[in-house]
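A quick aside before the break. I want you to see a complete sequence-to-structure record at least once, exactly as it would be stored in a machine-readable document. Don't worry about memorizing anything.
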Amino acid sequence: MELLSLLLSSSRRAVVAAVLMGVFSGFASTGLIAFIHAAVSRSQSPTALLVWGFAALCAGKFITAVVSELLLIRLSQRASFDLRVHLSRRIAATPLRRLEELGAHRLLASLTDDVLSITNGFILIPILLVNIAIVVGCLIYLGWLSWIVLLVVGLMMAVGIVSYQLPVARALRHLHHVREEQDALLKHFRALIEGVKELKLHPERREEFLSVSLASTAAALKRHFVTGMSVYAVAGNWGHILFLVFIGLLLFALPNVVRIDAPTLTGYVLTILFMMSPLEAVLSQLPTIGRAQVALKAIRALGMSLSGDAEEDPHAAAGETQFKWSSLELRGVTHSYRNEHDNRSFQLGPIDFRCAPGELIFITGGNGSGKTTLVKLLTGLYSPEAGEIRLDGVPLTDRNQTFYRRHFSAVFSDFYVFESLLGLGAPDLDAKAHDYLVRLQLDRKVRISGGKLSTVDLSQGQRKRLALLTAYLEDRPIYVFDEWAADQDPVFKEIFYLRLLPDLKARGKTVLVISHDDRYYHVADRIIKLNYGQVESDTLAAYQASSPESRLDHKANLRDVLSQFLRDHAEQ
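That is the input. The structure line, written in tokens, reads:
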């Protein structure tokens, strides 16, 4: 059993001890049946040995059952913890492009539903082992009473197992479909939460989404779940009926074939009746174990797909703090997106690009031209399919990937702001962060204490400023901004382009800015324009070639904008 193997990998010695305790508890239950049968069969009062033996078995069963369950409960939680942490680390270490292909809904389903199903399966393992031990002990006792009866019981159990496994195989197939539909349903739930504004504004869209897309997936999940669990229910009750049939044969048919005394017959019936309860418990637990098996296979399949690409080492070059560099170069780099549905693809490149410290570069182009893909390649988040990336002449490889990425701070269009300033454990972190909060006009909305932000529940533009705050505190040599100013008001947009970017450049930082704001292109040293995956132009900014008169006009305009900004801020 894969679940037991997972527990063994967590702590083999503890699992073996728990299993032995559970087996002893089961055999103790069988011993109690033997003592009860002996007491019922006696015509005289029970002896002291019988009484003390019964008491000892009761105490032994209680102690061993409790110890076994406590051990396996601790082990199951440890295994679940290890599974969650391991899977989280694998996700964090997997190439970004592969994660995008898998989809967030699949990853979330594995981290939540699958791990929960496996944990539920772990919890049932102690009970399952004890009940199996009881059934085995009862069979041994039946064999001691009569080996012929044991053979008949074994034959009946073989028929029951075969007739049980055939429908259960079908039930497991339905549970696999349930797991697949859970992925799709989670995807719809994310669409519901993230697109609720659009659904509220368009009743027809909302009704079609709820009644067709979401409802059809939920109905398919319900259908497969009901079918699978119904098959389990029928199979379990079929096994129960087989035992009742066998008891009927013992009571009404066997005395006509074989001479058997009443005490022996009582022992047969008593043992089989006692065995029915743990056997039913085993059968009732199998659906949960089956779901846990399906979940474990789903996680392992995900893990296998995650391990298909080279993993990143988060500790590589951890002690490196100096990032002196002189050139960053892309040579013939390409990257493709393939559409599995219509077999079409988009290719960026081949791209030849070179930048140096202190450059301020704008990357422009239409939507879908490959701008974000280009900066993901530059930052090492994507690996090129062809060509190579060189930092100071050294090619980027899997071995130096983490060191390479430490040169970059980035705020992408789909950025995320953490509530704590993780990984920035400087002694004066709060003071530096507060200075930047003032500079970014966020000090009235956000406070910083112990490296933790008081809130991230802000507007999109303000949250982008918090992301910029983190990038400032990282203080890395190369900055990447993907449409950063798109959500800013006109005043702060001016500040970003005309104060913040030049300030970074003056500090020797290389800044790469994806932007459609052509009125600020003059700020850049170079403008790279992409057109459907190809570099259409790589030129000096227009401002560099503009006349002195136009520069004076622009400076005057900048003074007016900044004066208005200061007046507005003073009024606030």
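Two observations worth writing down. The two ends are 67 Å apart (CA to CA). The chain has two domains: 2-306, 328-571. We'll return to this after the break.
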